[in-house]
Fold Alpha-galactosidase.
Amino acid sequence: MAVFHFLCCLLAFVVAVNGLDNGLARTPPMGWLSWQRFRCNINCDQDPLNCISERLYKDMADRLAADGYKEAGYVYVNIDDCWAAKQRDPVTMKLVPDPKRFPSGIKALADYVHSKGLKLGIYGDMGTFTCGGYPGSKFTMATDAQTFAEWGIDSFKMDGCYSTTDDFSTAYPIMEFYLNQTGRPILFSCSWPAYEMSFNPNYPKIAKYCNIWRNFDDIDDSWDSVKSIIKYYGDDAYNFSSVAGPGNFNDPDMIIIGNKGLSPSQEEVQMAMWAIMAAPLFLSNDLRNISERSRNLILNKGAIAINQDPLGIQGKRLWQIGSIQVWLRPVLPNGSYAIAILNENYGGYLSPVTVSLADLGVVDNGTYVLNEVFTGSYIGTYGTKDSVVIKVDVSSVFFGKYTRKS
């Protein structure tokens, strides 16, 4: 601990003037991440297709490249916890991939992923161990950053297990400094505010050093979990939405569309809300075994366009009555808006919601064309004071876009 704090003091003056400068995440990053679907399954003897191994990540890279995901923007293949051997190299102190599950090594895996036109991400921890009990980076940040660069890594997710609350505000800036020092653009995904939820996270500082950051509980494959995340983002504790923008985005966690926990309409809710929230779109599912309906939703051009809107403004919940929520996000072209009306669970029947742009705080006298996003269907043309009645079924969402006409 004393060594770590000495290093923090030594580098404090450096990181204070060396904010994030990697040119990445100008829009929310998109790709695939193993954790929610595959967790820490290391039993390759009995479950070779689903264990954390180079085979799994190659399979997902193949599917991203061949099934239309890459063209839609899903380009990151992200390794999560449990990839490493339990011990570092005793001579170099470098991290070592598990030799049985990653026999070719991470550099070879990165080369394979890159050959598909994709990017490879990897996982680590700022503490002494990762959450799964593998070697952490607490005393080896410079070595680990350089190792990742040598391997050809494009994204690094740093967790916060086996640490103290005093460490976060120094460890993440230090790691960002070392990542920048490698000269390789490496997207930095932080878990910093997720460990400080009750301590008023310093979001402006977090945004200075991280491209994306987790700030709430891990997502589970369930409707209740999705709803809890939406509520947290709607409540917007400490006004974290205000720091979102090109280069820096809040991360409500993975897309679970295509798994077993959500109904078709609930999958639409997640896709719509993650688009409204300007969230990273990291799929965590089995792309080798996904329904056409779920695949089409993940690839929906209208939803992706709103998620990837260059303004990068995070949408906000404007009001909630019972289980009905209305969210709004400014998007391009200038003066246009994405809207989501969510019915979490309102009596089991269609709930009519009457809304106008004026109700949502839009004060100009423009004319707007309203389309439903998923289908592109035309709803109508409205002035800001003109109301429209939208019927939203239970556990469902209306996802629309008001495009300014004049």
